[in-house]
Amino acid sequence: MTRFVHVMPLDDVIGHEGSPDCVCGPGGQPVETLATREPVGMIYHHHAVHPCSLWEASAEV
């Protein structure tokens, strides 16, 4: 897999790190091609400590 996207809350009470090792323990969801079912990336959805209204999706570099 070569591509990673992180969906993180911007207005949470803690700062989130754009990595799978973030303190919130983000869950990973693989992204596969429809034709071959080969994994091409991963989406990490970070967990908010309290309800947030501002979220951002960013690529891991």
Provide a concise account of the structure shown:
With 61 residues, the chain is mainly β. Helix content is 0%, strand content 41%.
Our count of helices gives: 0
Shape descriptor = elongated
Quaternary structure annotation: single chain
Question: Which stretches are poorly predicted, pLDDT < 50 over at least 5 residues?
Answer: none
Main beta sheet strand tally, sense and closure: 4 strands, mixed
- Mean pLDDT rating: 91
SSE topology string: EEEE
Strand order of the largest sheet: 2-3-1-4
| C-alpha-based Rg, rounded | 13 Å
Quickly give the structural class: mainly beta
Can you characterise this structure?
This protein has no helices and four strands. With 61 residues, it is mostly beta strands. It has a four-stranded mixed sheet, with no helix packed on it. It is elongated. The mean pLDDT is 91.
Structural features:
61 residues, mainly beta, four-stranded mixed β-sheet, 4 strands
Describe the SSE topology.
Blueprint: E1 3-9, E2 27-32, E3 39-45, E4 55-59
